[in-house]
Amino acid sequence: MKTKRTSFEKDSTSEHAELFLNVRDFIKICIGNDSKEKYSENITTFYSKEGGFCYIRVKDDYVHLGWFRGRHIDDKFGLLFGKGKTLRGQKVYKLDKQTREAIKYYVNETLMFLFEHNELMKLKKIK
Questions:
Q1: How far is CA 20 from the centre of its chain?
Q2: 26, 100 in Cβ contact below 8 A?
Q3: Model-level pTM?
Q4: Residue 56 and residue 43 in contact, taking contact as beta carbons nearer than 8 Å
Q5: How far is Cα 62 from Cα 109, in angstroms, rounded to an integer?
């Protein structure tokens, strides 16, 4: 029986492996010590005890980041695309200074959203 490879296994051995691994490491640093990863057949997901941040996967000629709360992020860098209910994507072609600033910003915006969302849910449970 052949076991299916995870997206992480595929992406970390692809022609864009170096960019993928650098972006992955940078996201984990931005989230902090509480960062966790989950591997599936299609994506590698990042989350913390507060909730989900994003997923990462290699596309044809870039690394795709899917920000789970992208619709709720003030996109001051203008890098997010998509019209889903909450998810917005980001294309990463290189991990330069501007891209690092944007990823750090999107992680922080996601964290603020998750804090606020979780506190609202706690208040609703109290009522």
A1: 12
A2: yes
A3: 0.90
A4: yes
A5: 23
Interior/surface letters 3-13, b for 16+ CB within 10 angstroms, e for the rest: eeebbbebbbe
Helix (H, G, I), strand (E, B) or coil at 86: coil
CA distance 35 to 49: 8
Sheet with 63-67, side-by-side order of all strands: 36-39, 44-48, 51-58, 63-67, 88-92, 80-81
Whether pLDDT at 102 is above 80: yes
CATH number of 7-69+77-126: 3.30.1460
Q: Domain residues of the chain, as ranges? A: 7-69+77-126
Give pLDDT tens digits for 16-66.
999 999 999 999 999 998 899 999 999 999 999 999 999 999 999 999 999
